[in-house]
Each structure stands twice: as C-alpha cells, then as structure tokens.
C-alpha cells in the first residue's frame, strides 16, 4: 500500500529530495483513498509546509521534536520498554519478522523506528498492515496527542495512523501512556542525562523478551513462519 510508504516519508528527516517529492506524496494520499477527510486536511498542511518551507528551519524543528524529546521518539519500543533488556528481545523478534516477510533493512535506523515499520507495512496486504498498527495503537495515540499539544503539523501523520489502526484511547495501555508527562526538549542537560543510559544490544538472549512485546509482535506476520538463523547485524 503506497499510503504507508508516503506516511513513512513524511516522518523522515527533511531534505531537498523530500521537499521535491511532496506533490507526489500528497497525490498518493489523496488517490489511494485510505485516509479520511479530516486526517487528509492535516496531512495537506504538512505536505505544504514541508514542500515550501525553509529546509534548515524544518530540519531544526524535526530534530527538536523527534531527536531531542524522548516522549516523542519514533522508536516504538522506547515507549514500551525504554532501555530495559526486554527491548533487545523484542527487537530480535521484529528483525525476524522482517526477514520472514522478505524485507531487508538497508539503513542505519533501528527496526522499531516507525518510518521503517511503515515501509514494511507498505509491502503487506492491508488487513495485515492494519493488524500491526492496531497492536501499536496505544503508542500511536500517545504520540499523536503529544504532537497536538506542541501544535505541530506532524501530528496529522500520527492521527492518520491511529485512525487506520482503529486505536482505542480507552484501553489500559493507552491510558497509561497518555498519562505520562512530556519531557522538555529545551532542557538539553536533562535530556542528555536521560539519553546517556546504557546502550541496548540486540544479540540473541535466552532471557530476553517479555509477554508485552510478544503480544505486540504476535500478529505482525500471521501468514509467515519465523525465519531461522541468527538476526541480521
């Protein structure tokens, strides 16, 4: 589904190439017909700003939002596991799912990076893609609300994804994430201290993994058997 690829690009780091692609991205979102009118209006605003704004200003805004604010991280497992060992096991499972679906990661981003996941979804049948998003719906809702509070047009992407996932804000997981306080991207000293925690490793670990991450991933590739062998480096 091209819509998921288009949404993935909208969450990418702004570049001149991405600016030039905005008209085509907007056209895909309108023509494929997966996005509702309200969400589409917000996405039109974002594509307009990304297509015509000052590139350096947009890059600065992107870094402030997604790289300097942990509560807005686009790495999904950050919101589920933080820096715990469980995140490593969940990441290995995700890599195996990608490999089972014939999807290879070529960039430097982590497997749970939302734009990477959306690229994978663009290769899957729509019912499978919706099921994956539903499993991460509480995270999408939390990110959408936090971006709305900061009055950024990027909120439209998360709103569209939450709609595609039919995410329910009344679930226990959603309420827990929505109740968390935002961090302050302007408090650089505090954020540096948070990000300087121990780095997660993703090698095989017989004790890694937890029921929460297994449940999140359990429906991601219902038609594919787990790939054998060690995870990709």
Structural notes for this entry:
The chain has helices spanning 2-10, 16-32, 37-52, 55-67, 78-81, 85-100, 114-121, 126-135, 137-149, 155-164, 172-178, 188-195, 211-217. The protein has 233 residues and is mostly helical. It has one domain. The longest helix is centred in the N-terminal third of the chain and has 17 residues, at 16-32. The model is unreliable at 197-233 (pLDDT under 50).
Q: How are the secondary structure elements laid out?
A:
Layout: H1 2-10, H2 16-32, H3 37-52, H4 55-67, H5 78-81, H6 85-100, H7 114-121, H8 126-135, H9 137-149, H10 155-164, H11 172-178, H12 188-195, H13 211-217
Helix pairs in contact: 1-2, 1-7, 2-3, 3-10, 9-10, 9-11
Annotation keywords:
233 residues, mainly alpha, single chain, 13 helices
Q: What is the strand tally?
A: 0
Q: How large is the count of helical segments?
A: 13
What structural class is derived from the secondary structure elements?
A: mainly alpha
Low-confidence stretches: 197-233
Task: Tell me briefly what this model is.
This protein has 233 residues and is mostly helical. It contains 13 helices and no strands.
